[in-house]
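RETRY 2/3 - previous attempt timed out on the joint model. Re-submitting the same 228-residue input unchanged.
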Amino acid sequence: DGGITQSPKYLFRKEGQNVTLSCEQNLNHDAMYWYRQDPGQGLRLIYYSQIVNDFQKGDIAEGYSVSREKKESFPLTVTSAQKNPTAFYLCASNQQIGSIYEQYFGPGTRLTVT
Amino acid sequence: QQQVKQSPQSLIVQKGGISIINCAYENTAFDYFPWYQQFPGKGPALLIAIRPDVSEKKEGRFTISFNKSAKQFSLHIMDSQPGDSATYFCAASSGETSGSRLTFGEGTQLTVNP
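RETRY 2/3 succeeded.
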């Protein structure tokens, strides 16, 4: 099955700890994205990567870091500097189909920090 | 800050009725307008998308209406069904790599009563 996998589905951490969320895709897409979803606020872009070994900050990058060493993988680290890390995190990748750029989303990871 | 304003925040419709969700944008450079459907605990999935060279696009029971002069676009769900109950997000993007950076609306939680 082709698609985007995120693991784990639920993640619990203590405040002050860094945590890394996994995102893997076997769709051969070049571009990958990380979003954060909070109730009533839609999806906000954290980081994105258009090609391997390159990535750009999104709208809310503070307190997060990423790497893109392989085309298939785009892990997100939530650092202790992120003031309010509890949220639903979504990874996505991008494919052009004709004039449409479709973003495929993974199933998400719900992170709870206490 | 590029923004997309979405309304209403929540919508309750009877089975067989028409669901209408509206979005407005400011950035006239936006040239791609997708709608996403998200079920609880899942990642969003692309429902339908439109470019500003057409005023309407229909796929099955789902129609996007686009008003370029008013900078507004809307999603119409005809013959709404309980299985349509989900959160709907509008989005927009612009630029040379159109579709690669999406700005999302805040979301509309649709409930279709049997």
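The interface with chain A takes residues 1, 6, 9, 32, 34, 36, 41-46, 49, 51, 89, 93, 97-102, 104-107 of chain B (CB under 8 Å). Closing ticket.
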